[in-house]
# Entry
Amino acid sequence: MKNLSKKQRKMLLRILISAILLCIIKLLPLGEKSGPAMQWLLYLLPYGVIGWDVIFRAIRNIANGQIFDENFLMALATVGAFATTEYAEAVFVMLFYQTGELFQDYAVGKSRQSIAALMDIRPDTANLERDDGSLEEVDPEDIEVGAVIVVKPGERIPLDGVVLEGSSALDTAALTGESVPRDVGPGDAVISGCVNQSGLLRVSVTRICEESTVSKILDLVENASEKKAASENFITRFARYYTPCVVLAALTLFLLPTLALALFPASILPAFLAGTNWTAWLHRALIFLVISCPCALVISVPLSFFGGIGGASKCGILVKGSNYLEALAKTETVVFDKTGTLTQGSFTVTALHPSEGFTEESLLEYAALAERWSNHPISLSLRAAYGKTPDPSRVTDVEEIAGHGVCAQVDGKRICAGNERLMKRQAADWKSCNLPGTIVHVTVDGVYAGHILISDLPKEDAKAVVESLKAAGVRKTVMLTGDTEAAAKAAAAALGLDEYHAELLPAGKVEQVEKLLAEKRPGTALAFVGDGINDAPVLSRADIGIAMGALGSDAAIEAADIVLMDDKPSKIAVAMQISRKTLRIVKQNIGFALGVKGIVLVLGAFGAATMWAAVFADVGVAFLAILNAMRCLRVDEFRS
# Structure
């Protein structure tokens, strides 16, 4: 009882009262021995307790022009049962229907819990540090960028920011699904929604509340139900036409035999009409109506997708709509970005090859200074290998050339550092390098100074995810990268990818995805996996855009259809397993519900099905379908 809402507890109480009253009427002699009028009044009492709201909704919907729904079917069937003196059956049908509604409401609430838990990741208050050092508890929405907040141990971080003082371990499970805490210290970026586990942190706010990571995630989750899968849209359209059709069929089932009995002598009537009367055919028509109620389909299919989205969120996988969850189950081509997706994105200088007249130290110094203002991982690795803090006054006129590299004035010399395209653009007499890795070529005043080899190691689970995707039925795995041919070839071979395309600019990646989209089989989907920042155009163009390593990335949340809130490629396989399990359950529910209803409808039309069989075909099938749909929430088998 404590897990039920107030509304659910009231419904449970009504069910119990109605059931008790029905048992009393059935068991006591008064109910069976009294006249028709008294029986009508006695059975009307439990019927009114359990069914008044269904009757009210049916009348209200009819007044609003919305006639054909489950309320209308239940009201028509039970009122008709009263008209044919089947009082007990009328109460039983309404009782079981309302029990099914209660169970449905509880199941939906249960499936919402994993998503609703996300709503608790946004704190209601923040500790704002005033100029005098005192703390004031304020609403996070009232805090501006640049303000300093204090996050105590055990509190959630209310806003995105950078740690000024303190060190601690952050619990990111609510966002990533991972139980391993993340250590942070001064200078590290932290995002809203994480739990500060140990130390006291002073944080400088970098985003207002409306633009924080947790706000964007909550918006994503809240809007997920608006993007329906094709199966959901089919069921919605199906129910729209199905319900009036079965009402007309039930009316025909009642009228035609009744008119035949009234107009023609018994001697010429078909055998199946012999011994029947109009009340028998009315009863069959009412049974037909109860059986035909589309509750199992209308409830279980959206519930399955909702459960799948909720289950995925437990694993740190945010799905923007059930249409993307359904498309992911049909994916046969997966295209990966390389850097930061399949590889660690933390580059290391592994070799220096200076030209004549230059030393390894001067080559590295020129490259590090030229890359002084860039935050690209390659630039960071060059500065890390240099080991000194570059003097910014030595660097002027920095020009970053997208897809090529960077040029700058260093100590009055024109330094260019980048790939082979930049060398061609500079018309330099450069030398190629066939070693696997990223090659940074350097020129000084147009003279080739040498090249630097930088390696980016694959992530630990990158090879395993490629193998698991192939085992799951993915026909083709492709890698697109702006890296060199040698580096791309080595990475593709190490990971077991089917195909790779190297030295691509962002536009080139889009062109390759266009070609792959044209090649894929009808009815299948292509997914692109990237970091969500540099790959936004490709994420948008693919059938499904998956952004990984996207903790705190605005571009990922905006451009992708599915967001993996950590840096593990293995979550791609998990997302696909969850989507296929969800779609499998949806198909099971559709097939089971239509199959049982079809069989019992035929039996009901020929008088071989009782009202109890009708109740099972409606409420019983709905019960089983809902139970099956709730399996979508069970994702422990996919969690590491």
About this structure: The CA atoms of residues 68 and 240 lie 8 Å apart. The chain has a mean pLDDT of 80.
